[in-house]
Amino acid sequence: MNASQQQRPSASGPERSPAAVAFVELIRTADLLASEISAVLKAEKISATQFNILRILRGAPEGLACGEIAARMITRDPDVTRLLDRLEKRGLVSRCRENQDRRLVLTRITEAGLATLGRLDDPVENAHLRQLQHLGPARLEQLTTLLRAARQKRSDQV
Fold first, then answer.
1. CA-based max dimension of the chain
2. What is the torsional sign of CA 22, 28, 33, 38?
3. In the CATH hierarchy, which fold is given to the domain comprising 24-153?
4. CA 154 to chain centroid
């Protein structure tokens, strides 16, 4: 049995429910997969959260307000403004006030930001393939359906 097949000993105490076991396995897996993607992103000196913001903005060339970017993010981050500041300082995004409503500041991806994503697209996709392709299309579709169902149930309760 290899290291990935070994189970860690359970904490002493009552037997854990299937939901608790699934939760722990989900978190352990997510952490492992995320750390591998973070290693790929290091080549461009950006974090996974910054990468997510750049991808969101690539899909919205007209620009987005900070709150809309936050709403579209994969993981919640309480300080999107700080992340945008860092990306703007590196020239990967630009921000400007709108003429119609001076209160509204839109953030857009720059050519440098698009170039950065362009250099990362294939390495990130290849990492995803290395990580999950062994499951096969049917199991990946099933996994995606299960994860969406878990998220939907939770979002219905909030």
1. 64
2. positive
3. Arc Repressor Mutant, subunit A (1.10.10)
4. 18
pTM more than 0.85: no
* Whole-angstrom distance, CA of residue 29 vs CA of residue 31: 5
How does pLDDT run across 45-94, given as a tens digit for each residue? 999 999 999 999 999 999 999 999 999 999 888 889 999 999 999 999 99
Q: Which of 67, 86, 87 is nearest to 77 (CA)?
A: 67
Compute CA distances 47 → 26, 52, 145, whole Å.
Answer: 21, 9, 27
* Residue the block writes with tokens 């990967």: 92
The 3-class SS string of the chain reads: CCCCCCCCCCCCCCCCCHHHHHHHHHHHHHHHHHHHHHHHHHHHCCCHHHHHHHHHHHCCCCCEEHHHHHHHCCCCCCCHHHHHHHHHHCCCEEEEECCCCCCCEEEEECHHHHHHHHHHHHHHHHHHHHHHHHHHHHHHHHHHHHHHHHHHHHHHHC
